[in-house]
Amino acid sequence: METLRKRGIGSGNGQFEGRFLVAMPGMNASIFAESVVYLCAHSDEGAMGFVLNKPADMTLAELIGHTEFGKTTVLDKAQINDAAGPVRIGGPVDEHRGFVLHSHDYAIDTTIPLSDAICLTSTVDILKSIVAGAGPAQAAIALGYAGWGAGQLEQEIRDNAWLTADADPDIVFAHDHDDKYPAMISRMGIGAANFIPEGGRA
Q1: Dihedral through CA 171, CA 176, CA 181, CA 186, nearest 10?
Q2: Which ranges form a coiled coil (predicted)?
Q3: Hey, what CATH topology would domain 2-194 get?
Q4: pLDDT per position in the chain (202 positions), as tens?
Q5: How far apart are CA 53 and CA 32, in angstroms?
Q6: Residue 162: how many other CB atoms lie within 10 Å
Q7: What are the structural domain ranges in the chain?
Q8: What is the value of pTM for the model shown?
Q9: What sign has the CA pseudo-torsion 184, 187, 193, 197?
Q10: HEC profile for the chain?
Q11: Cβ of 57: how many Cβ atoms within 10 Å?
């Protein structure tokens, strides 16, 4: 969690912090093809965010079952899976580490507020709370995150790799991943004919 705080998450420093990144079609050969990313940190030192629409090959109950406390706890798998929907692939960095974006009705000492509607907690305590039925009303579980070095994201946006849009908590917490990218493209009033084929690096 200290690493996250050092990244300035929730500081509001960067112009793109707290916004969505929507991948341009020119990124089809990239791991970020058709991705919607919630950018939770942006500063002169770089950026960090979570891909919202790439499901992992794992349910939340299975993820919890791999933790030390999950191995010794009887899990109500249906209830747990309903709590946060499918686990997402948050990005290619620290892909074996879990992060939870969630609503403000849950907070512990390590919780970082990101916006009026979204918080971030990355300790196992929130998973224990979900198992106990005391977790947040809305949650999105991600394995790994997307990261950019100093100036990298700004260059990718200049290279037409990403569109930016206001973040919507409904998109962040929605369980249906397949609809998120088409919904964002439609919401922005953009059709395939409007896209420039070449994009930037990612």
Answers
A1: -80
A2: none
A3: VC0467-like (3.40.1740)
A4: 344 544 455 444 678 999 999 999 878 778 999 999 999 999 999 999 999 999 998 888 888 888 888 888 877 777 776 777 789 999 999 998 999 999 999 999 999 999 999 999 999 999 999 888 899 999 999 999 999 999 999 999 999 999 999 999 999 999 989 999 999 988 887 765 555 544 444 4
A5: 10
A6: 24
A7: 2-194
A8: 0.85
A9: negative
A10: CHHHHHCCCCCCCCCCCCEEEEECHHHCCCCCCCCEEEEEEEECCEEEEEECCCECCCCHHHHHHCCCCHHHCCCCHHHHHHHHCCCEECCCEEEEEEEEEECCCCCCCCCEECCCCCEEECCCHHHHHHHCCCCCCCEEEEEEEEEECCCHHHHHHHCCCEEEEECCHHHHHCCCHHHHHHHHHHHCCCCHHHCCCCCCCC
A11: 8
Q: For residues 165-180, b (16+ Cβ closer than 10 Å) or e, as one string?
A: bebbbebbbbeebeeb
